[in-house]
Amino acid sequence: MKDITNLAWFAHVVEHGSFSGAARALGVPKSTLSRRIADLEDELGVRLLNRTTRKLYLTDVGREFLVHCQTVVAAAEAAEQVTHFVQEKPRGKVRISSPYAISQSLLVSIMPGFLARYPDVQIDLVMTNKPVNLIEEQVDIALRVRSTIEDSSLIARELLPSASALFASPECVTRYGLPEHPLDLSDWPTLSMHYSSGRYQWSFTSQHGESVTMNYQPRLITDDLWVLREAAAEHQGVVSLPVYLCRDYVEQGRLVRVLPEWRLPVGKLHMVYPYRRGLLPAVRVLIDYLIEFMPGAAGLAGLATDSDA
Amino acid sequence: MKDITNLAWFAHVVEHGSFSGAARALGVPKSTLSRRIADLEDELGVRLLNRTTRKLYLTDVGREFLVHCQTVVAAAEAAEQVTHFVQEKPRGKVRISSPYAISQSLLVSIMPGFLARYPDVQIDLVMTNKPVNLIEEQVDIALRVRSTIEDSSLIARELLPSASALFASPECVTRYGLPEHPLDLSDWPTLSMHYSSGRYQWSFTSQHGESVTMNYQPRLITDDLWVLREAAAEHQGVVSLPVYLCRDYVEQGRLVRVLPEWRLPVGKLHMVYPYRRGLLPAVRVLIDYLIEFMPGAAGLAGLATDSDA
DNA sequence: AATTACTGTTCCATATATGGCACAATTTTT
DNA sequence: AAAAATTGTGCCATATATGGAACAGTAATT
């Protein structure tokens, strides 16, 4: 079948009872319609309509043929309807990928509000600490903590600064001595998130502008911040963690901030999504919602902002 | 919806799992396929497929959309199937129009053989003595007795000569006197078929080549030959009738041939059908069957051929 | 590690389809 | 009776879509 559109046009011609009428309804020149139906008949080797200059008569074949053509039209309209449906208001599923820590601390606190505001939207929250390929994982939005997002095929929106600092248990500090300078940490056991680069280092900046880069060999590598925090609280070593994650533990005396005068690079919580012309309303409103409410959620969760970094 | 073919192509792309595969299967360049699907997505404002260079991923919308596209494909195939069905062997209905007399004397005798030979063909025999418009009456084949068929949009096949002669009842001949010359009929009551021209005349040719044209005012005008024959047998006057129609009555002594030395123009039984590229097998075989068996049927029915005209 | 094969997309000269017009045929209106 | 309106089709300059080649990216193979 060369051009299925011809089937739909044929159905319209029959239903309007004339080429001219159907042409007007379809917004197509009647000469085109005439030729296309004639082409269709030639291709099929069968006459569908007998024409006088004034009236059309369906052939027997045409009559049976018509039924299926009408099915084509109905199915095509139903197909189009599907796309209208998800476009007229926020509807359907949105897959969002987020690291565990972010999900547990920030997302969970704002999701109820979002779900209440958009009752026809379902959220599929994929929690993972691994870097995700948005297309392969079929994810609409991903949250990432990075200093910069380099992938040009993605749109990146900066949601929050996410300051990190070094933490260790008081017991560790007692055991290894309170460090005054980054190099004092050289014989400390260290913990770290997994980095695919395989290079583990801290880049310190003092309040006077002095820079020190220090390589270290982590005793524990994992891809979950919470695990790292527990390990640190259990005296396993010193670790770089988001400030907001540790605030409670610091207040409880389970962790202390190490080298508070030296800053580590401020990461940023990014939201990334693929560049797409037709972003669905459901995805759009989640993006907007995250932009609007994530900073507030971070405040409630005690996330470090510049002022307390 | 601009081009419904795109829906079918989309379905094929999904089912093959790749543009290249679908392109090969459809016999379409993959560049065309790629562009058409992209156009479709733009037109709908929705992304149907997420592509990597190696794999395709249906979006949620695409998945729902696909169902209807598959319906389109199935319906289009079903439509095409309808046309194949009636083309692969003689099948379906054939409407044939024929004058009453021809139907009753000739067609009925050969129809059983035809119906037996082609069990999947139905014949719709429209008996009428009025001139039929093949298209408006939706007739595939019409039988007509004319000297020539002038309509160029029709294909005319000559089936038989159909000689006519004048007949009257013996009683009439006794009453008005046996005519020796056409002009002897001038005071006879006359009967005639209905002619739309409104001009009633007999054109005689003698065996010596002499021509005489005689106008007359019919006492009875009808459009059925059988009625005319009965009227003549009932002594209502002289009438021009096909020779074969009257043979039985002549043998029974109910009618006699008048002016046997003077011939009337020999009409011809024609079969006409519209010129169509795609003549269905069912129509084709009926045409062929009539050409093959009508002469024999005429012989059995005693239809006048040249030899007995 | 390097090579090969194959993916989907883009480009652009070329081939194809389009659509305004004219036309013959017919119906409706004047 | 004549004129106006409307039908479906054929024509042809023009606009649109096509499809082969090139390309960048990825997976499988060597």
Automatic annotation (TrEMBL), chains A, B:
Record PANTHER family: HTH-TYPE TRANSCRIPTIONAL REGULATOR, TRANSCRIPTIONAL REGULATOR, LYSR FAMILY
The organism is: Aliidiomarina halalkaliphila
What is this protein's record name? LysR family transcriptional regulator
- What keywords does the record list, in alphabetical order? DNA-binding, Transcription, Transcription regulation
Sorted alphabetically, the Gene Ontology BP terms of this entry are:
DNA-templated transcription
> Any idea which GO molecular function terms this record carries?
DNA-binding transcription factor activity; sequence-specific DNA binding
Q: Which domain of life is it from?
A: Bacteria
Q: Hey, which family's this protein in?
A: Belongs to the LysR transcriptional regulatory family.
On whether Transcription is a keyword of this UniProt record, the answer is: yes
Any idea where the HTH lysR-type domain is? 1-59
